[in-house]
């Protein structure tokens, strides 16, 4: 009883101030406002979208090597605008090499910076797509399809100009936009 009384006194003492600090800030809630396509997603569409992403990454590297960073940046912007769902709202994108405090890229500006660097708002970005990639291949562990969305999980391997392969764990979620195009709305990648 003595211990309980002292604890209560300590908690009510004017000298002790308890401050509750939330562990995490309020999460960003993304409400995509679009009408999904009426046709369900197929496995072939998912695999085609994954291969298109890989081909685009290699193309951005190639354009950077042959035409320079400005041309690579223009191509990367075009790829992001056509492959990701940023025009429908934010995308849940956690790039492979991104780190705190800018781990997540919910805007197209953040995604572009990750792929080509050079944005002072994201000073740690070096340009993942500019790393001289020569080949990119997807190896799916599983694809979960439910009507107008599909989630895939597996590995993506990147071959660089020196012949070294880097393999990452990759999860993508795709939705089909009203025009019938698959859009990446979740992209998580880690080593």
Overview of the structural elements:
By secondary structure, the chain is an alpha+beta fold. 31% of the residues lie in helices and 26% in strands. Strands 1-5-4-3-2 form a five-stranded mixed beta sheet, with helices on one face. It is globular.
- Give the helices and strands as they follow along the chain: HHHEHEEEE
**SS-based class:** alpha+beta
Number of helices: 4
Task: Trace the largest sheet across and list its strands.
Answer: 1-5-4-3-2
Computed CA radius of gyration, to the nearest angstrom: 22 Å
Write out key terms for the chains shown:
5 strands
Strand and helix map with partners:
Blueprint (H helix, E strand, L loop, with lengths): L1 H11 L30 H25 L1 H15 L8 E3 L13 H9 L16 E14 L2 E12 L4 E12 L5 E9 L1
Parallel strand pairs: 1-5
Antiparallel strand pairs: 2-3, 3-4, 4-5
Brief synopsis:
By secondary structure, the chain is of the alpha+beta class.
